[in-house]
Design goal:
The protein is an alpha+beta fold and 323 residues long. It is built from five helices and 14 strands. Strand 13 and strand 14 form a beta hairpin.
């Protein structure tokens, strides 16, 4: 039963029934409800903070696992990037330099700008996107490793070609000349023995007794073997490939035939004095891409450094050629 309250009215000097206005009642109800809502929110916040739900626990564990994966992958990425940088540096600066191959284009500045953009992008990512980003970077590194592996396969081809190139590069003297006593005339302008005028001498003259063996100075294919009426008498021209060619002039007799394959050190004929010649000798020329070059730079296989210095002085002497 609802209690009825009374109050003493001093104006009427009697007790009257106490009645609460509707406005006051509504205000009291609203105040109570507001306090209840605030209290409930505080309790819920405390509960969420200190008493996570099962779903929240799973999310927190997943977040921790993603963080661990991110740090692990990040360490792997740094190590792989360091290894790739070192491999690319050695590839360009060592291996390709040895074989005179063009280096792989270096886009370091572009990569640096790309890394700066990726850094800005990473700063705005959550953990899961960071993990996916690092995984994508690993895929890129895998592609770089595959490209580097192909580069090493190419370098292996360079090695094989280099071996063949070395065997096809003139590297010995055409006649036996261990004491360097047979250099009669060098490369350059010399006095012509017939016309007594200064003319360009496109090779070296090796004075030797008639019948002295003449050797191929590198592997190659014989293009000319015989007398073609050009002043060289009986002579041999060998195409070594890779832009190299050699000529051996004034032979007494030619041993090889056009189209024949020869090896370095193989006898191709014997010293004579045929053609435009004033005495038994071997006129020897080296051509590089069709132009005559000084043969003295192509004797590195059968002389010592000291002999090479002496040979340079002998070949540089201004004297009369034999042809």
């Amino acid at each position: 039963m609802k209690k009825i309250k009374y109050y003493y009215n001093t104006n009427t000097l009697r007790y009257e029934k106490l009645e609460t206005p509707l406005r006051v009642t509504l205000l009291r109800v609203l105040g109570f409800l507001s306090a209840a809502v605030v209290t409930a929110l505080i309790l819920v916040s405390i509960a969420y903070k200190y008493f996570p739900s099962a779903n929240e626990k799973r999310l927190m564990q997943r977040n921790e696992a993603l963080q661990d994966n991110y740090y692990t992958l990040n360490d792997k990425v740094k190590k792989l990037q360091e290894q790739m940088t070192e491999l690319e540096k050695r590839d360009n600066n060592v291996y390709r330099a040895i074989f005179e191959a063009a280096p792989i284009p270096d886009s370091a500045r572009a990569r640096q700008n790309q890394q700066e953009q990726e850094l800005k992008l990473v700063q705005g990512m959550d953990q899961e996107n960071l993990y996916l980003s690092v995984a994508a970077t690993l895929n890129q590194l895998t592609a770089r490793i595959a490209n580097q592996a192909r580069s090493y396969v190419q370098i292996d081809g360079f090695i094989k070609n280099k071996e063949q190139l070395l065997s096809c590069t003139p590297a010995i003297q055409p006649v036996s000349n261990h004491d360097l006593s047979r250099i009669a005339s060098g490369f350059g302008y010399r006095i012509d023995p017939v016309y007594k005028t200064t003319k360009f001498h496109a090779g070296l003259d090796f004075a030797a007794p008639q019948g002295t063996p003449i050797y191929a100075t590198a592997n190659g294919t014989v293009e000319v073997a015989g007398n073609t009426g050009n002043g060289y008498g009986n002579h041999v021209v060998i195409n070594h490939g890779y832009g190299y060619g050699t000529l051996y002039g004034h032979m007494f007799r030619v041993k090889v035939k056009p189209g024949q394959k020869v090896k370095r050190g193989e006898i191709i004929g014997w010293v004579g004095s045929t053609g435009k010649s004033t005495g038994p000798h071997c006129h020897y020329e080296v051509h590089r891409n069709g132009d005559p070059v000084d043969p003295v730079f192509y004797f590195y296989n059968d002389i010592t450094p000291e002999q090479y210095d002496r040979l340079l002085k002998l070949a540089a002497s201004s004297n009369q050629s034999f042809d």
